[in-house]
Amino acid sequence: MADFPAPATTAVLLAAGAGTRLGRGPKALLPFRGRTLVEVLADVLSDGGCREVVVVLGAGAQAVRASTDLHQHAVVENPAWPSGMGSSLRLGLASARPGDHVLVALVDQPGLTPDTVGRLVRAHRPGRVTAAAYPDAAGELRRGHPLLLDASLRSDAADSAAGDAGARHFLQAHPELIDLVDCSAPPGSGQSGGEDLDTPDQLHLLG
């Protein structure tokens, strides 16, 4: 029997939100490392081993396009972004290369590194969901983002995405499929590596 190459991984970067709670406009345009958050994170995903990055825009999409250089990545716009993350996830999964695993990342996670992305890609097992995990206050690992959906699970994950839940309904229905990978940041870095940038008191995460 012939051996076929394992599927590669396409990243989907969800960057469609309006950033209402943060009050600074779309998070994609937040200044970060001399560029914008969406530019830096798209490159992080590529540097971590994803062969293509699909950036899903929504709120302020034209402003994001005009203010960023994303020419090395695939950019799609979700006109239904006000309905919640679910519609952006469905669009991202549909736009990823057919047959690829899909690594789903959020634009409001400035602590994401190529090392984290690489850990997930290397740890992934066929037919599984590989999720980054970070320690809570008690030191126990809790599932976070990014997460890597096996190519065989893309359709089911998309079908379950609704409202602002993203992949949550699918993950809650199939806990037996989830492998957690410890993606804690190195001691002394000042971050756990998994914080989401949601409110003004978290702007320090931009460094």
What does the model show?
The protein is α/β, with parallel strands linked by helices and 207 residues long. Helix content is 25%, strand content 23%. It contains 6 helices and 9 strands. α3 packs antiparallel against α5. The mean pLDDT is 88.
What is the general shape? globular
The secondary-structure element order is: EEEHEHEHEHEEHHE
Give me the side-by-side strand order of the main sheet.
5-4-1-6-8-7-9
Q: Structural class, please?
A: alpha/beta
Average predicted local confidence, pLDDT: 88
Total number of beta strands: 9
Low-confidence stretches: none
Helix count, DSSP H or I runs of 4 or more residues: 6
Could you give a short account of the major beta sheet? 7 strands, mixed
Strand content: 15-25%
Q: Helix proportion of residues, in percent?
A: 25-40%
**End-to-end span in angstroms?**
52 Å
- What does the radius of gyration come to? 16 Å
Features:
alpha/beta, 6 helices, two-stranded antiparallel ribbon, 7-stranded mixed sheet, 207 residues
Topology:
Blueprint: E1 9-15, E2 31-32, E3 35-36, H1 37-47, E4 52-57, H2 61-67, E5 74-77, H3 85-95, E6 101-106, H4 114-123, E7 129-135, E8 141-149, H5 154-160, H6 168-173, E9 178-182
Parallel strand pairs: 1-4, 1-6, 4-5, 7-9
Antiparallel strand pairs: 2-3, 6-8, 7-8
Outline:
By secondary structure, the chain is of the alpha/beta class. It is built from 6 helices and 9 strands.
